[in-house]
Amino acid sequence: MLPAHDSPFGVEMVNLLGAFILLVAFAMLASRRTLSLIRLFAFQGFFLSMSIFLVAFLSGESNLYYSAFFTLVLKVILLPWILRDLSQRLKIGGDIETLVNVPVTMIIGIGVVVFSFSLAEPILKAASTVTRSLIGVGLACVLLSFLVMITRKKAMTQIIGFLSMENGLLFSATNATYGMPMVVELAIALDVLIGAIIFGIFFFQIRETFESLDLKYFEKLKEDEE
Amino acid sequence: MLVLSVLAIPLLSAVILAFLGQKPWAYLLNAGLTFLTFIDSLFLAKKVLESGPVLALKETFYVDSFNIFLISLTAFVGLTTAIFSGPYMKIEEKKGKITPKILRLYHSAYQIFLFTMLLALSSNNLGILWVAIEGATLATVLLVSLYRTRASIEAAWKYFILCGVGISQALFGTILLYFAAEKILGSGGGALLWTHLFQIRFELEPTVLKIAFVFLLVGYGTKVGLAPLHNWLPDAHAEGPTPISAVLSGLLLNVALYALVRCKVLVDGALHSNLASEMMMGFGLLTMVVAVFSMLRRKDVKRLFAYSSIEHMGIATFAFGMGGPLATFAALLHMTVHSLTKSSIFFSVGHAAQINQTQQMSEIRGLIRKVPRLGWGLMLGSFAILGMPPFGVFASEFIVLTVAMKQAPWTTPILLLCLAVAFGVIFFRVGNMVLGEGVRMALPYPPALFPVFLHLALVLVLGLFIPPFLAHWYQSAARFIG
């Protein structure tokens, strides 16, 4: 293990990257085009990977370098590539989603952030990592992605929300504990990858049967009430 | 090494079936391979019985009295479902609902599903436990959408998204747990190993554990089918193929509840209050109430029994919440008998739907006249699930009720009301389906109804007499679950 670099500048940089990640999560809430959502997701992955790299440098935890590398490969290159390829093949890249009530969604989003920070307060008191103040950001990112999934009706958007939630979780894990044990992180990455393949297959199934990837046609499965 | 072989057989089987799953005899291979897993799990059980808890592969796996009976149960129901699914899927294929290619996916994914459940049960690492439960969702998503109908794809999507979101919350809970443990155990693999966490459970930071438990409860609770996050369950059960409904209800819900209870043990140690217990009791009760009142208006038979599964998971969660040796004993027994009974019911219901060409209860009539063994199987199964003596469900529900009267008297009327409503609805509906006029009919292939009666016989035995080794496991598990 390398000695820890306790530089205020480094910590400031991690904070800045955390702010970027949060900003991207908000941008996702308001983004209407599928392709720009994918781009935002790639950006988020990039900021995440950079912040993990910085935390690795600051804390001297060598495991985190691997984690940063995997994040870069998976979340910045592989997954956005799969998503872009899928949206090209399904011809939904240019789809524009009509959003209702963006201002209300944003205000709820701000509420979510406040809630996350107050929930993280007792946790960060117990934390000893240099970047503990960012636990709230991770949680906020998880909940904002959740909000994306609730407010959107397109299959692709919901999946991007789902993947971005995973980003938030990874960010929290890095900042609260310098990352989970390697085996677990690898296994989680494997799960995400398999999940990506499965939803890819799924998109084609949905497309084939519904002739659209818009989930508003999904209302058939109302409970069979008398 | 025995633990590893229990995991290796289904994993290898999945690979074998990925190549051979489309052959006409693949169902025999599927059943045969699952039989090997079952036999292997019995050897493991014997070892645990003789020499106590087993740790394997540098503490990666841990098998004790709490998970060994669940491992054997999973392998057993996996085996009987594989036997049942042979003729069932052949009939579906004949009807043109599936093709050999899809059957190959089905067989292979079935084995992967068994593998992930066994991995979740035997893993000592709470992170791997989470990964395995997420893996179980992924393995079953494509099985739920197997028929490629609109409804089944919609159900599978709902299942994927809801459980995916839910289980992400559980991951956050796991991260917090690791965070609290890391301070005491140091970073690295050790801080997620349950056996280590159990040692230091009294020293864990209470505030962090409190927040962690909320996330874990919401996360794993989604998978258990606890209200208000149970919405995926009836859809997935009704639209997927029946063998999958049987294993989802009978096994997967148990595995998720198992994960929750493992975490609860740690939280109970850290918190010097009953927070975790009270939350589980509350969610259990709410789940029961929501489930039984949702049953009232159901028309689809598989949906009806899916709600019944939610109700029974509510009972088990409630019983774990009450805690104490007796209630925990009852909860463990309830997990076992519910698993056996519900999968048996789904077996009968599956063939009943095939013979009547519908899952609508109003159109299923005179089953006893049409196919007597099937009709009786469904009727006896329903008696068992309703908690009629002398079946095992009666024993577990009776203990839960008695303990509730003593420890939380105010819950007794709610429990009784739920049981009564469920009784009325299922009794009436099943009565209409099995009785009445009908002419003798035959399915295109003789159904494998042997598992239906085997399960019911076991539930009957468990109602009259619990074998000493099983009682011993239940008791020693109850001792540390508390």
In terms of topology, how is this protein built?
The complex is a heterodimer of chains A (226) and B (482).
Chain A: H1 8-30, H2 34-59, H3 63-89, H4 102-126, H5 135-151, H6 155-177, H7 182-210
Chain B: H1 2-20, H2 26-51, E1 54-56, E2 61-63, H3 65-94, H4 100-122, H5 126-144, H6 150-185, H7 194-199, H8 206-224, H9 232-239, H10 242-270, H11 275-295, H12 301-322, H13 324-356, H14 367-370, H15 372-385, H16 392-407, H17 412-434, H18 450-464, H19 468-481
Antiparallel strand pairs in B: 1-2
* Proportion in helices of chain B: over 70%
What are the low-pLDDT stretches of chain B, counting only 5+ consecutive residues below 50? none
Give the overall silhouette of chain B: globular
Strand percentage of chain A = under 5%
Question: Which chain pair has the greatest contact?
Answer: A-B, 50 and 53 residues
Account of the protein in words:
The complex is a heterodimer of chains A (226) and B (482). Chain A is mainly alpha-helical. Chain A has one domain. Chain A is built from seven helices and no strands. Chain A has helices at 8-30, 34-59, 63-89, 102-126, 135-151, 155-177, 182-210. Chain A starts with 7 loop residues before the first helix and ends in a 16-residue tail after the last helix. The model of chain A has no long low-confidence stretch (mean pLDDT 87). Chain B is mainly alpha-helical. Chain B has a domain at 274-482. Helix content of chain B is 78%, strand content 1%. Chain B has 19 helices and two strands. The radius of gyration of chain B is 21 Å and the shape is globular. The model of chain B has no long low-confidence stretch (mean pLDDT 94).
